[in-house]
Write a structure and sequence with these properties.
The chain is mainly alpha-helical. The protein has helices spanning 2-15, 22-38, 43-68, 73-99, 105-136. It is built from five helices and no strands.
């Protein structure tokens, strides 16, 4: 019986596609917005804050996808936590960019709202994943 439950969990994960995850798609979306924004900055701004911001925001989607591909629960959750950390790191780089007049107030507020919304969704995904795995095992 215990083995059947694990097989059911595996089958559920196989049937789901990464592209079906809203948090994955939203993280790709914000990554593209940040990329386009930083392309307009001068060399020094791109080389310092821009690279850090792009790396941290791109890491959100990358860690979601890497965790999604992991078999073991703890591995998946670890990458979800990395993703959340990268999301909040990105928020810091956006604040630095705004403070250094690389973003106008509207751009900054729009991106922070997007990140805050994504953070809530990511936290809900982490919680739901933990509950689903515990319930099925």
């Amino acid at each position: 019986m215990e083995g059947l439950r694990k097989v059911d969990i595996i089958n559920d994960l196989i049937d789901m596609k990464l592209e079906d995850l809203e948090i994955y798609n939203k993280s790709l979306e914000i990554g593209e917005k940040v990329w386009k924004l930083t392309l307009t900055w001068d060399f020094f701004a791109k080389d310092t804050i821009g690279k850090q911001l792009v790396r941290s925001i791109d890491s959100v989607a990358a860690n979601i996808s890497e965790g999604f591909g992991r078999f073991h629960y703890k591995d998946r959750q670890r990458f979800n936590y990395y993703s959340r950390g990268s999301l909040y790191e990105s928020k810091t780089w956006l604040a630095k960019a705004a403070a250094r007049d690389l973003l106008d107030q509207n751009e900054y507020e729009e991106m922070v709202r997007f990140i805050n919304d994504l953070g809530v969704k990511l936290n809900n995904y982490i919680t739901a994943t933990a509950k689903q795995i515990k319930k099925k095992t």
